[in-house]
Design a protein that fits this description.
By secondary structure, the chain is α+β, with helices and mostly antiparallel strands. It has helices at 16-30, 42-57, 81-93, 97-122, 125-137, 139-145, 151-172, 178-195, 202-217, 220-223, 234-248, 254-263, 270-281, 288-291, 294-308, 312-317, 337-351, 356-367, 370-373, 386-412, 420-453, 462-472, 488-495, 500-505; strands at residues 70-71, 78-79, 479-482, 512-513, 516-517, 519-520, 523-526, 535-538, 548-554, 560-566. A hairpin with a 2-residue loop joins strand 4 and strand 5 (516-517).
């Protein structure tokens, strides 16, 4: 049988199949996700409390009325959309970790469903099923999908944007289906535009994904003869610009520029210093201004950052160096996916390259790390998360091919005489079990070792600490909480369920650091050791030797991380 012949298989999709895949992804991401990871990271707390503030008052905790482009938060101006998706969740379940993480779980699971529909359109049901299944259990997508990261919403909207734009491009060719085309094109414009309000990286990727999808899938040759028909895209274009108007008018404002300026490699002075140094060594020769231009060094940094996302270390061994993004037990993918990816690329290049979808997949795969590459921390599993979706398709193609070839080999060798008909589902079932065992191994590590060893990365201990301080404080007593573990004010607001209107009233007075409160009512958030009288909370290293500890709060390994004492 010709290599990859099954790619031309007839498509048939049981209605329950994509639903089952979404439910699998949803269950894997939701199961005990308030226990592992063991605590909300400070960005989750900020998202949750601002959404709670919107729910209660119609303003964020700084007092801004319904921010559209971004929430100031800690001065990093987070895109606004995920905050609003949290409002109904918090309204239903209250201000807690469950409510903050639930929308991310939902969007991560729905991404699996949309990916299935897109993959099926590009290939066939068999490949789409395997690819979506691998995405559902993928270490990278699975771990990020358990946490209240805004990027889960962004990826869902980006993939939905590609799918709906692909649909619109196809329906445009059919003159009798123009109403259907209009619906898909408007939906595509909505998804891509909204993705830019959900995550910083999507502001770069959404236009790139949209342009790439339209350029590759649209039949320009036949439609160029009738340019008037191209005006049918006008409603979608207008809708896109209307939705993006607030963002476009804020391009030069801190709400858009601040995060980029903080994380961009172009804010790093090192390339400029190297450029000047090498040019001086060359006695400022004319050619040195070209060879040692700062853009050359920035280009090298970009290329290095970009290639890190395709490295063996990131994909199969360690993953992101930040343990909040990948477990580092496996890489972003399972080690055995090195084989399925390699086979998938080979099969697609041989049997799939004549299709537009192949080239679109290649382009989208190559575009996905770009947003992460212009930042200083690379490889970055959050900023490059769309790549996880496309890798699952390459891997799914490889998995389907390997199973097909194994079945064909055994039949050819006459090793299956009486069980020929039943072998294919048996083999599929065995592979599914193998994949789920891999997932189980990851879960055992993640739940029993990872959550303990990385608890400090998740600022574990703030919830019992805030409760202890509230219970131990005397009426009117001053409370001093150390800032050494980061963002204590927001943890007070979140776990203490402080009335947002009180926080808004305190906005105009009191000291702040990057818009983070350094004091609130009788609470003071301090650096270093503090000797003022009152109730104190600090690490053992900052606790005075003669202090009488009221309560010690340990981490999950039993090591004391907070001492509560009075002086």
């Amino acid at each position: 049988m010709k290599f990859g012949k099954w790619l031309r298989a007839v498509k048939f999709t049981p209605a329950w199949l994509p639903v089952l895949l979404v439910l699998l992804a949803f269950g894997l991401r939701l199961f005990q996700n308030t226990v592992t990871p063991p605590s909300p990271y400070w960005e989750e707390v900020a998202l949750g409390y601002d959404a709670y503030s919107i729910l209660q008052t119609g303003r964020d905790h700084h007092g801004n009325v319904l921010p559209i482009v971004a929430f100031p938060s800690f001065g990093d101006y987070k895109p606004s959309l995920y905050f609003y998706t949290l409002v109904p969740s918090i309204a239903a379940f209250g201000l807690n970790v469950w409510a903050v993480r639930l929308p991310a779980v939902i969007f991560s699971a729905l991404t699996v469903g949309v990916a299935f529909l897109l993959f099926q359109k590009w290939t066939n049901t068999r490949i789409a099923t395997w690819a979506a299944f691998l995405l559902a259990i993928q270490p990278w997508s699975w771990q990020v999908g358990r946490v209240g990261f805004e990027v889960n919403l962004a990826v869902f909207l980006l993939i939905s944007g590609v799918y709906t734009l692909n649909q619109a491009s196809e329906y445009f060719q059919n003159v009798k289906k123009q109403k259907t085309f209009l619906a898909w094109s408007l939906l595509a414009a909505t998804c891509l535009a909204l993705s830019m309000y959900s995550y910083h990286g999507a502001r770069l990727l959404a236009p790139l994904f949209g342009v790439a999808t339209l350029l590759i899938t649209f039949d320009w040759k036949s439609n160029w003869k009738k340019p008037v028909r191209l005006l049918n895209w006008l409603p979608a274009i207008i809708l896109g610009f209307v939705l993006l108007a607030p963002l476009l008018m804020s391009l030069l404002s801190p709400s858009v520029q601040q995060r980029f300026n903080e994380t961009s490699i172009f804010s790093d002075p090192q390339p400029v210093l190297l450029s000047n140094q090498y040019r001086e060594l060359a006695d400022q020769a004319w050619w040195s201004r070209i060879v040692y231009h700062r853009y050359v060094f920035w280009g090298q940094a970009l290329a290095t950052n970009y290639l890190k996302h395709f490295s063996l270390s990131f994909l199969f061994l360690q993953g992101d160096a930040n343990p909040r993004h990948t477990s580092q037990y496996f890489g972003a993918l399972y080690p055995w996916e090195a084989l399925t990816l390699l086979v998938g690329v080979a099969v697609a290049a041989q049997s799939f390259r004549h299709k537009k979808a192949f080239w679109l997949l290649v382009v989208l795969t190559l575009l996905s790390p770009i947003a992460a590459s212009v930042t200083t921390a690379t490889p970055h599993a959050l900023r490059a998360l769309p790549l996880a979706v496309w890798l699952s398709l390459w891997s799914g193609i490889g998995m389907a091919e390997l199973i097909h070839e194994a079945h064909a080999f055994l039949l050819k060798k006459k090793l299956l005489v009486k069980v020929t008909r039943s072998f294919a589902p048996l083999l599929n079932g065995a592979i599914i079990v193998f994949c789920l065992i891999s997932m189980g191994i990851l879960w055992v590590y993640y739940h029993y070792q990872y959550r303990v060893e990385t608890a400090n990365q998740w600022q574990y201990g703030y919830e019992p600490l805030i409760s202890t301080l509230q219970n131990q404080a005397l009426p009117g007593e001053q409370i001093f909480l150390s800032r050494e573990q980061g963002r204590p004010a927001m943890y007070l607001f979140f776990f203490g369920k402080i009335d947002p209107s009180k926080v808004q009233q305190a906005e105009s007075g009191g000291a702040k650091d990057q818009q983070e409160f350094l004091e609130f009512e009788n609470w003071h958030f301090v650096d270093g050791q503090n000797t003022q009288p009152g109730l104190h909370a600090a690490s053992p290293g900052l606790t005075p030797e003669k202090a009488t500890v009221i309560q010690a709060i340990p981490d999950l390994q039993g090591k004391v991380i907070w001492n509560v004492y009075r002086q």
